Amino acid sequence: MRTFRAYLPTDCIDFSEVYQLPLQEGHHLAKVLRLQEGDLVEIFNGKGQRYEAKLVNVGKHVSVRLLQQKPSNTQSPLALQLMVSIGKGDKMDWIIQKATELGVSKIIPLVTSRCEVRLPKERMAKKIEHWREISVQACVQCGQDNLPEITDAYDLMQVLPLIEQGEKWLLHPAENTLRLKDILLQSANIAAATLLIGPEGGFDEKEVTLAIRYGFRLASLGPRILRMESAAIASLALVQGLIGDL
User: 79-243, which class in CATH?
Assistant: First the structure.
C-alpha cells in the first residue's frame, strides 16, 4: 500500500499536540489525494526525521497528530554541494528537483559573467522561494527526509573565497582536462565535495583562474559538451554513484 507523505517544518515534536500542515501540503492531501480524517500519512520535517501521523482535521486547513517516529536512512554520507549558474526558463526548476532527488546537501545559485538570468532583488527572492518549494515537493515524491539548503543568489567572484570544505571541482570542457569519472575513481574517504557548473556559454577566463586559485580542480564530462542542466545532473550522479550512496 502506498504511503502518502507531507512536509511539516518543525523542530519541536510533541505527540500530544495537533499540528497544522502548510496550506499547499494540506491541499494536496485533502483535494488531490482525497484523504479523510483518520487516514495515516508520513510526515517529514526536512531535517532527517520522519513520523507516522493521523489526519485529525480535513478541511480548509489540514491537521495531523504524530503517532511515532520512524527510521530514516535517506541522508547521503557525502556532504555534496552544488554551485550552479542561474539558467533561464525552467532549467533551474529541473536542476533543483533532480539535485534534491540525488541527495545534495546545499545548492548555491550563481550570477556569473555569462549568466542567462539577472533579476531585481525582489524577483530573485521570489525565485529562491519557488525553488525551495520545488525542493520540498521533490522530497515528498522521492522519500528524501533532508531538505537541501538553497541559499540566496551569489556573485561567483564573491562566493568563491567562502568555499572551504572538501574536494572542489569545476566542470570545464577544455582539452587535456581530466575526466571527473577518473578523478573520482582515484578518490577515497571524501566526506565533502563541491561541484561548480557554469552557464551555457561557460565561465570566462578570469572566473576559471580565480576558481583554480581558491582550490577548484578542472574536470570534464567526456568528449561531448553537455547543456548546463545535463552537466549538473550527470556530474551529481557520477559523484553519488562512485563516492556517495547511489
Answer: alpha beta
